[in-house]
Design a protein that fits this description.
This protein is an all-alpha fold. The protein contains 15 helices and 2 strands. The protein has a two-stranded antiparallel sheet with strand order 1-2. The longest helix has 26 residues.
Length: 325
């Protein structure tokens, strides 16, 4: 067998287009052919979406943000099928890949995203973690653009995006805190204040949605905090938090990419904030929130992929392509 270094293999544009097209087609076929949806809380989302389009035949139990079901209900009104929501998720995954391409201009970054195990695990899922990751990535990109151009409007957009992500999915909450602590560590108070004001406006969309649906702005927020408090103190029969299973550990460590360790092996000082952010986030999942469920840390995946690509694209002799003689 012949081993060829990655640096000797040139990924051409048509390779990328063909690969992404094939992956998208496979995802669509799998969704259309599937008969089950096993994402955590998917039954709650489906029930609430049906409630929003007028099908109220099941007792409603709701503790999550109303924004994602509200958006999905618009698609369901056009074509009443769960498949539409699943395909909507695939479209967002495609859009995230496009944003990664636009930001990095790296074909390898797009391929790392396309072949990420966690992307395939969530493809076709009914979960707000997917649009939440899109908004989280947008916040990161805007912040990086701000650092280059020092344009206040770009900073405000970053703050707006980070908390829109939080408004869409509660899974972004801890990572948003890590994001602020790490990326604003050396920034001034004025920058932090501007970012925070925009962030509050972004999160307010969650309160507005709850108010119009339930007549109470803090409906899902208080219910979510209360329900998770019960789980964290171990008073829930189906406790999903403290589960130190090998499967969960493997998902957290290798789910983003089996090549994640390369980013740390080839440390780059200019990416220090990204290293710290991804490390803290993964440690949080390993030590505090060990369920290992992909949607629980999907918000950080695009940033981790970008980190890997910035190291991986310049590393020589690390990845080998195994070809026949």
């Amino acid at each position: 067998r012949k081993l060829i270094m990655l640096k000797d293999f040139e990924i051409k544009r048509w390779h990328l287009i063909a690969c992404i097209s094939a992956i998208t087609l496979v995802m669509v076929i799998l969704i259309l052919a599937s008969t089950e949806i096993k994402t955590q809380d998917s039954d709650e989302y489906i029930t609430f979406i049906k409630y929003l389009i007028g099908i109220d035949n099941i007792k409603l139990f709701w503790i999550h943000s109303s924004i994602y079901p509200l958006i999905c209900s618009l698609f369901m009104r056009i074509y009443p099928s769960i498949k539409v929501i699943q395909l909507f998720g695939v479209a967002i995954l495609f859009l995230i890949g496009f944003m990664i391409w636009q930001f990095t201009k790296s074909k390898k970054a797009v391929l790392l995203w396309a072949f990420s195990p966690i992307v395939w695990m969530l493809a076709g899922s009914i979960t707000p973690a997917i649009p939440g990751a899109l908004l989280f990535l947008a916040a990161y990109i805007f912040l990086k653009k701000y650092e280059e151009k020092q344009n206040r409007n770009i900073l405000l957009l970053s703050g707006l995006m980070i908390w829109l992500s939080n408004a869409v999915t509660e899974a972004s909450w801890p990572y948003s805190l890590f994001f602020i602590l790490v990326f604003f560590y050396k920034k001034g108070f004025k920058e932090m204040l501007q970012f925070s004001v925009a962030a509050i406006i972004g999160f307010a969309t969650k309160l507005v949605a709850d108010y119009f649906i339930f007549g109470y702005a803090h409906f899902s927020l208080l219910r979510f905090i209360g329900a998770n408090f019960v789980v964290f103190i171990g008073q829930h029969s189906g406790n999903i938090i403290y589960q130190f299973y090998l499967r969960n550990i493997l998902i957290i460590i290798f789910g983003i990419s089996p090549l994640l360790f390369l980013a740390y092996k080839q440390y780059k000082k200019e990416l220090k904030a990204e290293y710290i952010f991804v490390s803290i986030s993964l440690l949080f999942m390993l030590i505090i929130y060990t369920s290992g469920m992909p949607h629980h840390f999907f918000s950080i995946v695009p940033i981790a992929i970008i980190l890997i690509s910035k190291v991986f694209s310049k590393a020589s002799g690390i990845l080998f392509l195994i070809l026949p003689p």
